[in-house]
Amino acid sequence: MINLDVYCMAIEYFSILDKLPPYIKPLGLGNNIFPKHWLTEKEGENISDLNKNFAEATGFYWIWKNRLKNKNENDWVGSCQHRRFWLNDLYNKKQKVSYKSLYSNLLNPNNQIFSHCDTIQIQPTVLKKQTVLQQFNKVYGKNIIEDCINYLEKEDGIKFKNFLNGNELNICNMFITKVHFFKSYCDSLFPWLNKCLEYCIKNNLCKDDNIRLPIFLAERYTSYWFAENTNCKYLSFARLGNFMLSNKINKFINPTKIPFTFRMYPTIHDF
Question: Which of these, 32, 52, 67, 173, is most buried using a 10 Å CB contact count?
Fold first, then answer.
């Protein structure tokens, strides 16, 4: 069995996360108050104040700076999210399962997939009629990602642009990888992401629905970086049903009745 730490990123307290197995660790992000038994990115070296722009990437930074010093380079570390959880297999269709059924299907450290790869990602989404670059430009605006590529080292920028001209994207910024790859990824990501943020602020782009524009740039870079630098395998994830839990909802709903949906990729998207 491998040594595995998966940090479950959450922007507020969700009671369902208290019942996850010990290798899945709730990590509170941003400025909300979390239970004392949770990890929070306010502890230790952090960039928590950038969470409104960087979202889960502030959690990546916190893990990088505070949780890896005593880890073996071949231990495994990664992330999930408060409404997305790694499953132990690939599923070829959506399935609704009960809250209790989720736990028996969660990824565990005994899975043989760890013997056959360096990184686990969500299976790529296939864009049906356009490239990754065209989809980004359509949703977030033209020239943004092309301008930000210029902040990368020349060779890295060329490879990233080639990736953007393809039609496959690992969404959600969820991955599990070996510690030494996690460190290398962060070494590459954060200098670039800081420059992307400066660019977005300078051009008045981080506003309204685009306040998290830097993390949408990072989502494309993350998908590229692990495909380029590691041997990747894919798993499905479970996603909360038709609503998101909040503290207010938690008071009135029995969490054991919450529907989860098993998701399988690739999914053909016609954006």
Answer: 173
